[in-house]
Amino acid sequence: MKKTILKFLILCLVIIPFAVQPITGCGNDNHNENRNEEAKEVFDSTTGNNSKSAREVDIDLSIMSRTMIFAEVNNITSNPESYLGKSIRLKGSYFAAYYDVTDDYYHFVLIEDADSCCQQGLEFILGDDYIFPGDFPPDMTEIEITGIYSSYLESGQTYYYIAADVMQYTEE
Amino acid sequence: MHEIIDKLVLYFQFPFVRYAMITGTLIALCSSLLGVTLVLKRFSFIGDGLSHVAFGAIAIATAMNLTNNLFLVLPVTIICAIILLCSGQNSKIKGDAALAMLSVGTLAIGYLILNVFSSSSNLAGDVCTTLFGSTSILTLSMTDVWLSGILSALVVVVFLVFYHKIFAITFDEDFMTATGVKSKAYNLILATTIAIVIVVAMNLVGALLISALVIFPALSAMRVFKSFRAVTICSVFVSVICAALGILISILAGTPVGSTIVAVDIAGFLLFSLVGKIISRG
């Protein structure tokens, strides 16, 4: 019987890589944005999340797990130039920081990793309709923003941010 | 179930998820190959000890602002592995005591160096990520994937080429020496290979959980099979499946990757223990 089990295990070791191939997409190197959008549409229609699916985004982090969000935000901050111009939807904790050199407030969405020991943040800038502090929630309020990943130059340094047109949160 | 599959299809559009799966399964494969030898030689905790040494080396590399800490971490870990595994019977400090000394000493000194010299804005977070590997495997660059792939291939080749010698070292090193075979040289090769596996595996489960990656697949296989070859093959199977499952569960459920893989390994061990009991009664 043990020989049979061993043979079965060896057979599985050979078969599994071929079985997994369709899921991993190995061998299919086309960075096909349509495929990504189709996958998102399938997921959105399945979960009934139709209110946001009408507005298509390139990277929808609001439907992902915490682990995935943290990893993708890490990639965004590590390789910001490859994300410029892409639309992003993101959920996280709101945080405002004051910088005395520019005498201005900067707004961030913070994301924690699964261990809750690390945080990452993406800066976002809303339109002129939003005036701080009245139109902004208290710090650490859960918010959702949607916008285009962009960059600006300040004091000779390039900064990356989300040019957000929408910020949603629940008032307490 | 349909939702889960749709979500997985979406997640696998991201390159870093594919990189994580490839690298994770390769690391699991390598660690399981050597895990059988380590468990049988009563060196189960060497993974822990060497990972702490690697952590200390990472701390020194960070303090020195090295662009790629692998150039320091790998040689230091290899040297310590050689010291631990090749010290022999005549050393003043025996195996487990030497391992314990090295393990806690390098961990403490590593953390001390990071506290004194690091310029990181979130030191606790960086240390936590290195120790527990919550998302390290999901933040690999293409270079990291290639490096891990090459090192993993090297480990597999070494294991396949020196399979019979590794078998001999595992079960009767003294007899091997008595018959004129250079057991010290093969011990050196084994130590170097183990060090490479540990350094690469830190990306997957972090420094504190590496021992689980080495021990659990081997012990699971030993519940059912008795021959060295069967245990090794089964250990590889268990390790790869558990690592893949662990990564998938962690990205779906939002749990830390390292801990999830170890939890799946434990579940695998319990399952194989049950199967072993059923087979032995049959």
Walkthrough of the structure:
- The complex is a heterodimer of chains A (172) and B (282).
- Chain A is of the alpha/beta class and 172 residues long.
- Chain A has a single domain (43-169), classed as Nucleic acid-binding proteins (OB fold (Dihydrolipoamide Acetyltransferase, E2P), Beta Barrel), CATH 2.40.50.
- Chain A contains 4 helices and 6 strands, in the order H-H-H-E-H-E-E-E-E-E.
- A 5-stranded mixed barrel of chain A has the order 2-3-4-6-5.
- Chain A is elongated, with a radius of gyration of 21 Å.
- Residues 18-54 of chain A have low confidence and may be disordered.
- Chain B is built from 13 helices and no strands.
- In chain B, helix 12 packs across helix 13.
- Chain B is globular, with a radius of gyration of 19 Å.
- Classes of the chains: A alpha/beta (172), B mainly alpha (282).
- The A-B interface holds A 1-2, 5-6, 9-10, 12-13, 16, 20, 23-26, 35-36, 39-40, 42-43, 46-47, 63-68, 70-72, 74-75, 78, 113-115, 117-119 and B 2-3, 6-14, 16-18, 21, 122, 124-126, 128-129, 132, 134-135, 138-139, 224-226, 230, 233-234, 236-237, 240-241, 244, 250-257, 279, 282.
Q: Can you tag this structure with a few keywords?
A:
heterodimer; A: 172 residues; alpha/beta; OB fold (Dihydrolipoamide Acetyltransferase, E2P); five-stranded mixed beta barrel; elongated; B: 282 residues; mainly alpha; ABC transporter involved in vitamin B12 uptake, BtuC; 13 helices; 80% helix
Entry summary:
The complex is a heterodimer of chains A (172) and B (282). With 172 residues, chain A is an alpha/beta fold. Chain A has helices at 2-24, 33-47, 50-53, 66-78; strands spanning 59-60, 87-99, 104-112, 119-125, 142-154, 157-169.
